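User: quick one, fold this
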Amino acid sequence: MDYPSKDTLGLIEFALAEDIGTGDVTSTLLVPESAVLKVNVIAKESGILCGVPAFRQVYETIDKGISIDEFIHEGSRLYPGDIIAMVEGPARAVLEGERVALNLLCHLSGVASETNRFAEKLRGTNCKVLDTRKTTPCMRKLEKYAVIIGGGGNHRMGLWDMILIKENHISAAGGIKAALDRVYSNGNPKIPVEVEVKNIDELRIALDYPLDRIMLDNFDVKKVERAVEIRRESGVSIPFEASGSIGLENCREYAEAGVEFVSCGVLTHSVKALDISMVALEVL
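Assistant:
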């Protein structure tokens, strides 16, 4: 997934308008209009760098005369004290964009760093960590981009690009068989189909359909091992996704039990921002 530049522009414009409002009164009072400011962007903790294109896009939106020299590239590992970039330009403009630019850089680096922790836990297995739709409103594409940078994978983008039959859909349709019969009533859909199963009985029914993926919802590890055994006995190779109560402490157990994917809302819905700051070098 490439950086979603077009989709992000509107978000950046809104964020700048929200922050700047009628003008930066402090900088207007204290910073000469002709002043030029140089600042370093510095990592204060370890993690994965993500959001440099967004950082750059913020300043391009404010003033195309601002220059940014990147010293560390997107997706690289950061350590405390690393100088990520140097920003130089009209002082008032640099200060106006500081908070929005850092908010995006810190948040996306936090998402990428958390994802990378999961990816490292899963290293050497045949399992990949996926994100979910538990994203910050209006930031889904950005956060899913950060998941890719961190070494994870993307689940569906929204309600339109995959048929994902969950518990409430199954109840409304009158059961899992009725739901799947309806989905496949006119042949295979043109988009991927996944169904959530709550127990082994539902799994056995699901394995009779040409699904793209089966979600094992809140299965413990022993139950996952049994599900994998049943899949093997059935002779089908539908990928399994484990979901529900999966964290860093147990994701590898699920991977070693035989699932191809684990999905974790924690990658985006409650992630801690990476600590990155801007430090002035000189005012010209």
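User: anything notable?
Assistant: The chain has a mean pLDDT of 97.
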